[in-house]
Amino acid sequence: MSIKKDMQKLVVAGLANLDEELAREEPVARSSGSIPSTSTMLAYDEHATAMKRENEELKAGLGKARPLALDLLDDSPDHIGEIEPERVAALQSNLEQNPQANPILVRAKADGRFEILAGRHRVQAFQNLGRASIDAVIREATDDEALRMVVYDNYLAPSLTDYEKYAGLSLIRTKRGLTYEALTAESGVKNVGKLFAFERLPAEGQEIIKATPAKFGANLFANLAPLADQYPERVVDALRLIAEGKLGQDSAVKFVKSPPSPLAEARVQAAPSSRTPREWVMAGDQRYAGYIVRGREVQIEFKDEAATQAFAAEMKALLTRFAKKSQKP
User: Fold this and answer.
1) Which of 107, 218, 244, 304 could form a disulfide with 162 if both were Cys (CB 3.0 to 4.6 A apart)?
2) Biggest CA pair distance of the chain
3) What SS3 class is residue 289?
4) Alpha carbon of residue 271 to chain centroid
5) Which residue, 86, 75, 89, is CA-closest to 117?
6) Nearest CA to 86 among 121, 61, 47, 118?
7) Domains of the chain, CATH where assigned
8) What is the model's pLDDT at position 121?
9) How many CB atoms lie within 10 A of CB 269?
10) pLDDT at residue 307, as a whole number
11) What is the DSSP letter of 226?
């Protein structure tokens, strides 16, 4: 019996017993097998509709903030540098009293979890506060795009050291096979050559820098790299003394080139560290101002000139208030 006659018969029967009728008929030869039952076709249709609706909802959610459970978030393997406790503390203090202003950025993983592309300090602050979820934007990104988002986003962080900047750019260069010229063009970083001079330093010296990266800059890498082959031990000694706060970066080249003097070496080794750690005041997850207290002096450095001028306008009133408090009754 043809398919047309079958369907005519079913229509006449009012579809009352479609499954029973089809079960009594011989299957019609088709490339994919017999005609499925009505219940099966309805189930397929409902499933397809549900999948289409879910897909549309997921696409509609891309680029828009939505709450995600914290226990579904994983840090990106491409993040450079450690979580900074002072940034987390500042964010935690703010988010404890105020709503989240900026969502984090994530991408979906194959296992149903999410990789953090930007905002890991906010995630840590939320975890410390005992929150269950955080607002996040889900971004479609390939591995290559995710790598660039993570590294270049972190590169702009004011607290990132030159070594950490090198490490991030080196990761991109290695994974993507870029030349220095291509990396410079893509990143917009002007001192790529100075940063990558780190690779020409002795291995022992590199480990010293990795242990205390905040004490070393790209200019030092570039200045010491040409001397590493001729004076490897002196370069390592200079880096060690800088790490200990006994030698300034601007004196490193002279130290390396000068013939070692037992008396001078003894004086340098015995000299106490003159470096005073800078305390930072945070504005959200950004550094607003840093200050150093040396004896009777306080040195303050602001993030920009506008902030400096604003503080200067208030400083006289602040000092006057403290002066009045200091007066004896």
Assistant:
1) 218
2) 115
3) strand
4) 38
5) 75
6) 121
7) 3-61 (no CATH), 65-141 (3.90.1530.10)
8) 92
9) 11
10) 73
11) G
